[in-house]
Design goal:
The chain is an alpha+beta fold. The protein contains eight helices and eight strands; from the N terminus they run H-E-H-E-E-H-E-E-E-E-H-H-E-H-H-H. It is globular and about 45 Å long.
Length: 206
Amino acid sequence: MSVISATLTAFALAAITTAGPASATPPGIPSASTAASRLAALTVAAESHGSTYDRDLFPHWITISGACDTREQVLKRDGTNVVTSSSCAATAGRWHSPYDGATWTAASDVDIDHMVPLAEAWASGAWNWSTSRRQSFANDLDGPQLWAVTDNVNQSKGDQDPAQWKPSVTSFRCTYARAWIQVKYTWGLSVDSAEKSALNSMLGSC
């Protein structure tokens, strides 16, 4: 092999990395019984400060490692056979969206959903946080806050809580409720009464 060929081969190998099959379930989802006890422990309060919400108050998709930001980390974590470029962009792979049951092979068809939307968090207590804490929340890879899902499903969900929006895959609603409760519990956010009632109903399907 010539020096030029060897150099090109090395460059090509460096330019792409392939991750093996990955779990499509973020970490930290509690059992239904644990989720129920944590829901009972949450403060019930009406939402507030909604008119002062600004998405820019939650710096997100920050650099996590090397060239990879939070979105790219979730795509690698939750996809199968994900191939990334030297800039960490996902160029191939498969992603299963648990909200609607769809499978995608183009990263452009996938959004990273905040389980508890940023505006919902703001109105549930994050208005009183520091920017640093809001950044940590918006990029939380340690709990079940970030999910790779179908882009238009994420857009349909928007900022709605479980009293207003639920995944169309009914068998996933138990997991959805457990994850939502865990995020609110971990971050000390409140729930409103309609939200709590909806979550209790969803836990009933577990």
